[in-house]
Amino acid sequence: MIMGKILLNRLKHMDYSIIVVTCLLAGFGLLMIYSSSYVLGYLEYGSANHFFNRQLQWFGLSVFLFIFVALFPYKNYRKLAPMLVIFSIILLILVLVPGVGVVRNYSQRWVGIGPFTFQPTEIIKLFMIIYFASFYSKSEEKLASFKTGVLPPLIILSVMFILILKQPDLGSAALILFACGFIIVCSGVKGRHLLMLGSVGIAIIVYFISSTSYRMERVTSFMDPFADPAGTGYQLVNGYIAIGTGGLWGNGLGNSVQKLGFLPEAHTDFIMAVIIEELGIFGLIILMGAYLFLMFRGVQIAKGSTDMFAKLLAIGITFQMMTQVIINLGAVSGLMPITGVPLPLISYGGSSMLFTMISLGILTNISIKNQMSAA
C-alpha cells in the first residue's frame, strides 16, 4: 500500500515534457535509420528492414529501462558508484580480449556475447558521470585538498582514458573527459586546481592526437577533404554533397541519393547529412530545437536541485549529451575531425540509444524529486 502511494505520487510529478521530446527524437531516429539504411540492409542482409528492426528492439528495451530509472530513486546510484567504476574497468579490459572484443572498421570497441553485441564506452559515459557527481558532491572544505579531494577520481579517469584509446576511440575518450571535467568545474573546486587540470587535459589530448599517424590523418583530413577526395576526405566530401543538395526544404523523405552507397556510415555517424539532404535545413532546425529544449530542461533541473549530487548528476548528463551533439554535427559539417561519435537518439546503435535514454530517465527522476520537494 505504501509503495503504491509512493509510485502514484512519483507518476503525479512525472516530467512529461522530457518524455515527449525524448520519444519524438527516438521515433524520428527510427524513421531516418530506415530511410538511410534500407538499401544497405537489402544488399548486405537481404532485408530492407534489417537495421530498422534491430534498432526498434533496442528502443523497446530502452523505453522499459527509461521508465524504471525515472521511478527508481536516484540517490541509490551514489551508493553504487564504486561498483560501477570496477564494472567499467572490467568491461574495458574485456573489449581488448581476443574472442570477446569485436572488431569493426579496424576498431575493437564492442563486446560480443553470442549474437548480442554492445559498446561498453556508452555504459561508461554514464557510469563515470555518476561516479564523479558522487565524489565531487562533497563540501567545499573537503574539496580544498587537491590530494584527497580532487585527485583520486582523476587517476581512475586516466586509466579508463588509456584503455579506451587502445580500442582506439578518441572521440568517446574525449567525451568522457569533457563531461567529467565539467562536473569538476561546477563542483566548487579551487580555481588554481581547475587551471592546472585544464592545462594537463589539453596537453594529454594534443599528445595522443599527434602520437599516431591514424589520428593525425583524422585531424588533418577534415581541414581540406578535397586534397584526397577518394581517400581520407571521401566521407566528408560525400557528406558535403548530401548537405549541399538538401537546400532549405530538402529533396523529400526517402529521396536521398548519397545513402545509395556513396556516403559511408549514412545510418550511423553521418545520418545528419542524410536528414539535411531529405528534409533540408528546416529539418536540422527542428532537430536542434528538440536538443536545445532538453538542454534547457536539464539546466533548469540542475538549478532546482538542493542536493549537490543531483545537481552535478543533472549537469553531467545534460553536458555530455549536448557535447556529443556538437561533436557529431561538427564532424558532419567539417568543422571538427571525424571521431565516430553518434548523434544521440538518432544514429543507429543500440548501446547509444539505450544509455542515452537511461541517462534521460535519471534526469527525469531528479526532476520528479524536485517537484515533489516543492509541492
Explain what you see.
The chain has about 375 residues and is mainly α. The protein is built from 15 helices and three strands. Strands 1-2-3 form a three-stranded antiparallel beta sheet, covered by helices on one side. A hairpin with a 2-residue loop joins strand 2 and strand 3 (about 115-120). Helix 12 crosses helix 13 (about 270-305). The mean pLDDT is about 85.
Individual helix count:
15
Strand-residue fraction? under 5%
- Radius of gyration, CA atoms, in whole angstroms: 21 Å
Share of helical residues: over 70%
Q: Could you tell me how far the N terminus lies from the C terminus, measured between alpha carbons in angstroms?
A: 21 Å
Q: What structural class is derived from the secondary structure elements?
A: mainly alpha
The ordered H/E elements are HHHHEEEHHHHHHHHHHH
Main sheet makeup: 3 strands, antiparallel
